[in-house]
Design a protein that fits this description.
The protein is mainly alpha-helical. Helix content is 38%, strand content 7%.
Length: 147
């Protein structure tokens, strides 16, 4: 059978909860070269999806943070100068998708990580999430974070 005629096996849905909980622990490293506007010698946190999840759970109802503020909290908790913005964005998605997956599996809204307190409906990540922009808008309106 020619390569082009091979059937692709259906892609398994991602197990976001396993990705969140099964990643390596956070790590702080000292920059050797400039990166993301930071200089050599600064301490950069490469967080983890589990750490992002824990920080999301600390945001109280009716409060919100920007992704930059979330990164600042992560860095402060690890005694680092800053958090890697690239990996933090990836880990925010994993934490958000895991929370949504838990909700789809029956967890109450109050029992999942409130990612909508960081990801607003205009954030580029919002349109990628399985929950959809409308869910984020609804949750933010319910908490008085969006009109």
């Amino acid at each position: 059978m020619p390569k082009s005629a091979k059937k692709k096996s259906p892609r398994k849905p991602a197990n976001w909860v396993a990705r969140r909980d099964g990643c390596r622990p956070a790590e702080v490293s000292v920059l050797g070269i400039p990166f993301a506007g930071h200089q050599p010698g600064e301490k950069m946190l490469i967080s983890s999806p589990a750490d992002v999840h824990r920080q999301l759970r600390r945001i109280r109802k009716g409060q919100c943070l920007t992704p930059a503020q979330l990164r600042e909290r992560l860095a402060a908790a690890a005694s680092a100068d800053f958090t890697c913005p690239l990996t933090a964005g990836i880990f925010l998605r994993i934490a958000a998708e895991a929370a949504w997956q838990e909700h789809e599996n029956g967890a109450a809204i109050e029992d999942i990580a409130p990612f909508w307190r960081v990801v607003d409906s205009s954030h580029p990540l919002a349109k990628k999430l399985a929950c959809g922009i409308d869910f984020i808008r609804t949750r933010r309106r319910a908490e008085g974070l969006e009109e």
